[in-house]
Write a structure and sequence with these properties.
By secondary structure, the protein is an all-alpha fold. The chain is built from five helices and no strands. α4 (80-92) runs antiparallel to α5.
Length: 126
């Protein structure tokens, strides 16, 4: 039960952070492209790489803390459900080129960012 509570609290924190970050990015870059969620997904995946590798190599954290941070905060912060909705909205607006760019940048950029996070921890902490 402690892990469930940890995920719930972490998820609330991550979701609020995602919401606030998305608002700021959207205000800065406009509403024509889902810049906020794109940035959240890439930054979040980079952070997930850093956290996962740090936990694996350096830090012995409890299951509750791992659940709180990785499943809760990071799961609440990075969301591909919002990604799917944004991509669907672009497609429904017949913005197929932007939709393709958004999908490719989100998926490719996020995976690249994850590996950059893994590499950064392996390089710095090795």
């Amino acid at each position: 039960m402690n892990s469930i509570f940890a995920v719930a609290v972490g998820g609330a924190i991550g979701s609020v952070l995602r919401y606030l970050f998305n608002i700021q990015i959207t205000r800065a870059f406009g509403f024509n492209f889902p810049w906020g969620i794109l940035a959240v997904n890439i930054i979040g995946c980079f952070a997930m790489g850093l956290i996962a590798e740090s936990f694996a190599l350096r830090f012995n954290v409890s299951q509750e803390m791992r659940s709180f941070i990785m499943t809760g905060i990071m799961g609440g912060f990075t969301t591909f459900s919002a990604f799917a909705l944004d991509a669907g909205n672009l497609i429904e607006r017949d913005a197929f080129g932007l939709a393709g760019l958004y999908i490719a940048a989100s998926v490719g950029g996020s995976i690249l960012a994850l590996f950059l996070g893994l590499w950064a921890v392996r390089t710095v902490l090795a």
